Fold this sequence. Notes:
The complex is a heterodimer.
Chain A: E1 12-13, E2 19-23, E3 27-32, E4 46-49, E5 52-58, E6 61-66, E7 79-82, E8 87-93, H1 97-102, E9 119-124, E10 127-133, E11 138-143, H2 144-158, H3 162-165
Antiparallel strand pairs in A: 1-2, 2-8, 3-6, 3-7, 4-5, 5-6, 8-11, 9-10, 10-11
Chain B: E1 3-6, E2 10-13, E3 18-22, H1 36-44, E4 52-58, E5 66-72
Antiparallel strand pairs in B: 1-2, 3-4, 4-5
Protein name (chain A): Sarcosine oxidase subunit gamma
Organism (chain A): Actinoplanes lutulentus
Pfam families (chain A): SoxG
Amino acid sequence: MAEQNSPLGGFRFPEGPVTIAEIPFLTQINIRKEPDSSLPLSAGTSSRSGDVDILWLGPDEWLAVGPPGGFTEHHWEGSVVDVSAQRTTISLRGPHVRDLLALGCATDLHPGVFGVGACVQTTLAHAPVIILRRESEFWVLVRASFATHLAGWLVDASREFAVEALP
Amino acid sequence: MMLIPCPWCGRRDESEFHYGGQAGVAYPSDPSTLSDEQWAKYLFFRDNPKGAFRERWCHTAGCRRWFNLVRDTVTNEIHA
C-alpha cells in the first residue's frame, strides 16, 4: 500500500493553553440524497451512529465522518462519494476553545446554541471550515490546502490565553 | 457588515455569502428571435431601485444554497 501523508503530518501542539492536534485520515463520505429519518434533518445538527458522525451540510447533503480505513456497516443510496482526502481534522481541547474560535469566526458558538453534536459550516480565519462540537473536544474540518494556514493561525491565536495560566 | 438570513442556516455574516444580482430575470423563451439590443438588455441591464430590491444570494461558506431576498438598497434592511 502506498505511504499516506496527512496535510499536517500528524501535527500536535499539546503544550499550549488549547491542545491542538491533527486527527489524520478520518474517513469522510459525502451523501446527496432525499432526506429520510436516518439522517439529521435540522440545519447545524449531527447524529452519531456507532463511531460515525453524520453532519448536516445542506437540505439534501450530509457528511459522514468516521475512523480511518472506511466503514462498511452503513449503506446509503443516492450520490455517495468518498471525500476523505479533501479535508483533514484538527481537534481542539481546553477551557479556552470557544474563545479561541471566536477570534476568527463570526458564528455564535455559545454553549446555549452550540451544544454537543452541533455542527456548522462557516469560515475560521478566512478559511472555509466545518466545526463539530463533540463531548470533550471541538473538531475543525478544514480543506487540505488551508490546513497549514489554519494550524499556524490556531497556534498563534491561542498564545494569548497562556497569560492567565501564568502563576 | 450585514447579517443575512439564510433560509436554512439562519442569520449569518455577510462575508459568508455570494451576491447573485437581481432575482427573477427570466431567460428569454426563444433567444434566437431577439435583436442584439433585446439580447444585450437581457444580459446586461438590471433594475437599480432606490429602496426594496429583490435579489439572489448564495450561502457559499455554509449550505451553498441559492435563495431570494428583498433588501432595501438605502438602509440594507432585509424584508423577506
